[in-house]
Amino acid sequence: MTHRILLRAGHVLSMDPAIGDLPQGDVLIEDGKIAAVDREIGADAEVLDMTGRIVIPGFVDTHRHTWEASIRNVAPDATLDDYFVDILDTFAPLYTPEDVYAANLAGSLECLNAGITTLVDWSHINNTPEHPDAAIRALTETGIRAQYAYGSANTSLADYWFESKIAIPGDDVRRVRTEYFASDGGLLTLALATRGPGFCVNDVVTSEWALARDLDIPITVHVAMGRLAGRFGMVKQLHDLGLLGPDTTYVHCCYFSEEEWRLVADTGGTVSIAPQVETQMGHGWPPVMKAIEHGLRPSLSIDVVTTVPGDMFTQIRAAFGAERARVNAASWQADVPVPDTMLTARQMLEIATRNGAHVAGLEDRTGSLTPGKRADVVAIDATALNVAPVHDAAAAVALSADVSNVETVLVDGVVRKRNGRLTADVARARRLVEESRDRLLAAKEARA
């Protein structure tokens, strides 16, 4: 029997150019798929009244180390250099599979609560084969749409980040592929989270790229974050190794040379930018406009909740403010008018939805409210005092709304947040992640 949900009388921002905006519109969902988007739809369905709500596609976070939810805010003032020592060399070696499960459970529920319906889980905490199993189990239980990016272990900074000679274990990635991701059509898909040149010797780099391509899974890699990584010329090195391709997402990209921007664009690569982390921790200016100028479609990501908030509203505003500040300053210095290409609030909403789906390789399934796509939908309460009155719905979401205004969240047509409350067992998730915090802090003290 067909299951139908009708989102009725909302202000629909479809993010589909062919459909556009409907100041009062309906969205019909059938068996997890968007069946129709129109001004008024008659259907025998469960009706969710969207009056006074702005209805948008779910946000897409294209790069988050979800395992770090247990150690939220332990490094509030950290620089990038601090992070490597304080997190990867201090806490990461202490993580058990139980800690990864608790963090991924709480972290992905945090995403859903904030209207993030798709997550690229950049999981470089695979200290044993049980660690990825725990991460995937948590993602599965929450019902989020996720790309699980299998990364390296992190038991020693020296072993895994300084010209590392240790490759991600291919046998275990193959096991995970077979056991959990036999199909690429499910709610969860697989990627490989690689460290790349400068962090690994060339033999490791080439072996990891070959592994991903043999398994036909996408690749995601941090590049050009901070002056040190910028000097590595990582994309240029990957080009010299013959490894660039459209299956690779480049994260941060703050210190790219012009040649590297051209190489990424010419080979069909995609870009993920984490603006709050980048401005706060010293990675460099978030290169949103640089990516756009080179014909790319940049996406946004949270990165680490050890140091920044875990919601997309923060990232939208960090990118919007930082890029406009940079351009304004340069224009002032040159005594010229600001260009017509200054970022707009609507562009930021598109970057956080459609572009994110594009970067995650899921634009055929999500990212816009398009009939035929899966029903990943978020409703924002536009009657709240921090949002009302609405003059420009896209600006209301991008510049005024916050997590408290995320009232309804559906993933694959399943309601995951209703009337402002998650449908999951939040108390259990909180208890588990707090127990994980206590266990990790005790282990840290014992190790000191």
Explain what this protein looks like in three dimensions:
- This protein is α/β, with parallel strands linked by helices and 448 residues long.
- It is 39% helix and 21% strand.
- The protein is built from 15 helices and 17 strands.
- The strands form two sheets. Strands 1, 2, 3, 4, 5, 14, 15, 16 and 17 form a nine-stranded mixed β-sheet that branches. Strands 6-7-8-9-10-11-12-13 form an eight-stranded parallel β-sheet.
- β2 and β3 form a beta hairpin.
- The longest helix is centred in the last third of the chain and has 23 residues, at 312-334.
- The chain is globular, with a radius of gyration of 21 Å.
- The termini are far apart.
- The mean pLDDT is 97.
First-last Cα distance: 60 Å
Beta-strand content estimate: 15-25%
Number of strand segments: 17
Helix content: 25-40%
Radius of gyration: 21 Å
The major sheet is characterized as:
9 strands, mixed
Low confidence ranges: none
Mean pLDDT over all positions:
97
What is the topological layout?
Blueprint: E1 4-13, E2 21-30, E3 33-38, E4 46-49, E5 53-57, E6 59-64, H1 80-88, H2 97-113, E7 116-123, H3 130-142, E8 145-150, H4 157-161, H5 170-180, E9 188-194, H6 202-215, E10 219-223, H7 226-232, H8 234-240, E11 248-252, H9 258-266, E12 270-273, H10 275-281, H11 288-293, E13 299-300, H12 312-334, H13 345-359, E14 377-381, H14 393-400, E15 406-411, E16 414-418, E17 421-422, H15 426-447
Parallel strand pairs: 1-4, 1-5, 6-7, 7-8, 8-9, 9-10, 10-11, 11-12, 12-13
Antiparallel strand pairs: 1-2, 2-3, 5-14, 14-15, 15-16, 16-17
